Amino acid sequence: MQPPDRPSDEDDQRPESAHADGGRTPVDRAFAALVGTLRAADPRFARRVSEPRRLRSGQIMTLLGFVATVLLGLIPLTVGIQTQAAVLLTLGAIGTAFSPVVVPPVVGVVLSRVRPLW
């Protein structure tokens, strides 16, 4: 095992280890400086900036659009086909057609007004 202050051979092969400041490119440093300036001007700004390792708004909208399509479209449609219930067939057809179109923008509006704190 190597001492902690000496990087291993694996680290030398990574592209981010070529930078002296721990893998931050000039663009990353410029972005961090910009965010720092905005944070100083408006302390609420830091809460609204997404971190790259967490779910972003687009990912949340896609996930909820998929879940809504399954719950409001595919499941009623499948049950309606099996039971030949016209109400479930209609609900399933409408849910399958409109859930992927309607849910993501609605989630986007909600997220733009109430930014999650995770």
Automatic annotation (TrEMBL):
Membrane-crossing residue ranges in chain numbering: 60-79, 85-111
InterPro entries to which the protein is assigned, alphabetical: DUF3040
UniProt keywords, alphabetically: Membrane, Transmembrane, Transmembrane helix
Pfam families, alphabetized: DUF3040
Region (Disordered): 1-26
Top-rank taxon: Bacteria
The protein's name: Uncharacterized protein
UniProt source species: Actinomycetospora corticicola
